[in-house]
Amino acid sequence: MGGLLYGYDLGIIGAALLFLNKTIDLTIQQESLIVGAVLGGGMISSLLAGGLADLIGRKRVMICSAVMFVASVGLIVIAHGFLPLFLGRALQGLSAGMIAVVIPLHLAEGLPAEIRGRGTALFQWLLTIGILIAFYIGSYYTNGVDASVRAGIAGAALVQAQSHAWRAMFVSSVYPAVVFLAGTFFVTESPRWLFRKGKTAQALAALKKTRSLEQTEIEFREMSEVAAREKSGGGSHTGSLFQRKYVVPFVLACAVLGLTQATGVNSILQYLVVVLHQAGLDGAFAARVATPISGVNCLFTILGFFLVDRLGRKGMLMIGTGGITIALLVGAFAFHQFESLRVDVTGPLRLAVAGSGAVSPGSGTRLPLTSATIGQPLGSGSNQLVVLYTYGDEGGEWIASAYTRDTDPFLNIPADPKGGPLVVKRAKYGPAPGHGTGIAVMACVILFFASFATGPGVCVWLALTELMPTRIRSIGMGVGLLINQGISFGIAAVFLPFVGNYGYTSIFLFWAAFALLFFLVAAFLLPETKGKTLEEIEASFEGVKP
Fold it and tell me: Are 283 and 274 in contact (CB under 8 A)?
């Protein structure tokens, strides 16, 4: 249930974005911050969750995360401005960060070695189920708003329908959150945490619940031997991340976590509808196909579930990152086909805006898409004008666009509610992407998610928990997830301003470069850990036999 909530967090914002800025006045920076707030909150709590899990136990941290999630839903639903909405999403992120640390940690420490891969993959599978449910819920309420538009509802009534739609999307998550909260009270505490706290009898009892008597005795003996080696090492720095025997596995785990997010997976998930729409698909169609695309993620995670304990972590990461690299490069090429043909028309458009009188505070802009507006011939076929603009010195940026194929081809920019003057920062004009280009990008996204699900999606939690030695596992996981969530938050927070300035080709190439680096790390640096107990993996980095 924790994985399901984590996935719902990631997936629901994509459809909600369609209506948020229509009912609450938001700049593109504020929209990006709301998207990234879950990742930013997770970045903070992931660092704290490891120490907290060591202090009070894995089970109590699960309970805390569930309570925070339920509270965050209430805060989001009552929000009518940027700040409370951002705080609600951040609180949801704090909860998600704790979930991302404590549940894989508890699974790794509690499951037998022969099924640890599948058990941890189950967390990822339920995460993809959460994303799938979020997309379905988003599509359901988006279709409701579309039906209202077709029925002729407009003005304040339409705004109210849009407001209800995005709030209902978030309300839907409270039901699994309550189930998660109730379930946390029935979880057995981690045997390795109990052992390290000196509760050996309880640790032994916890092991017996999932292992044969013989396997219980073997693992209990290995845990005792590791503890004895640590004790014989002496010194005040026992357990420090900077001991030689910890540095290599710690750095490798952090590299896997950081590179996983540097592929852009969370940004593609959360901006999926926007990406497909900008590639040439109709907005409503893009919202509909987002659900089956997330279903691909879910189905291939099941495939990874069955393969991870057979092919191993290393091989699956190589297959997955190779597919991701290909998908991103082809996607970049698809966007380059039309973005490279766009020309800068900033100067002529600024003159047209000034001539319209729209620079005066309080007035909106409505300019016909003509050769006089853009300063050059319109050209044949369907073309698009994309404008990045701001109001005075406010610092916020917005994007507006207009198409020559529209029945009423006008560039419409609303007036600044604060009365600031309109300033055109950048304007580009060129061929608009067609439906075929949109389908091509959609195919690339499908390959991306299929590859991610069978590679990093399944293996990242295993790398995080298996590579970290027992003594530093909680703190190390927190630091690793801080890097993971920090990169994810950074990419999500700058996504819209970045593509507004440099285009989708650049962002896809950026992600592809890191996906290739991820492939090289998996191929040449990562050890294979399938079928080994946590103590055996730890001993291999120390150069001793457990």
Answer: no
3-state helix/strand/coil string of 383-447: EEEEEEEEECCCCCCEEEEEECCCCCCEEEECCCCCCCCEEEEEEEEEECCCHHHHHHHHHHHHH
Residue 295 has φ and ψ, to the nearest 5°, of -65, -35
Residue-wise burial string across 260-276, b where 16 or more C-beta atoms lie within 10 A, e elsewhere: bbbbbbbbbbbbbbbbb
Burial class (CB in 10 A: 0-12, 13-18, 19+), 536: middle
pLDDT tier, 441 (very low <50, low <70, confident <90, very high otherwise): very high
Looking at residue 238, its pLDDT comes to 46
Q: Give CA separation, 160 vs 22, 79, 144, 286, in Å.
A: 10, 14, 12, 23
Would you say 7 and 130 are in contact if contact means Cβ atoms under 8 Å apart?
yes
For residue 355, which amino acid is it? G
User: Which residue in this structure is represented by tokens 């291999």?
Assistant: 540
Label residue 334 by pLDDT band (50, 70, 90): very high
> Do residues 401 and 414 make contact, with C-beta atoms less than 8 angstroms apart?
no
Find out whether 345 and 375 touch, Cβ atoms under 8 Å: yes
Dist CA 256 CA 267 (whole Å): 18
- Give residue 237's pLDDT band: very low, low, confident or very high (50, 70, 90): very low
Residue 264 — left, alpha, or beta (φ > 0 → left; ψ -120 to 50 → alpha)? left
- Strands 422-431 vs 383-391: parallel, antiparallel or unpaired: antiparallel
Output the pTM of the full model: 0.69
Lookup result for tokens 């927190």 = 478
Distances (CA, A) of 163 to 18, 75, 115, 157, 358: 10, 15, 45, 10, 29
Tokens of 193: 């945490």
Q: Pseudo-torsion of CA 258, 260, 263, 265, nearest 10°?
A: -120
Tokens representing residue 151 in the block: 């029925």
Q: Are strands 343-344 and 422-431 parallel, antiparallel or unpaired?
A: antiparallel
Query: Which pair of structure tokens corresponds to residue 275?
Result: 């990406």
- The tens digit of pLDDT for each residue in 142-158 reads 888 778 878 887 778 88
C-alpha to C-alpha distance for 277 and 451, rounded to whole angstroms? 22
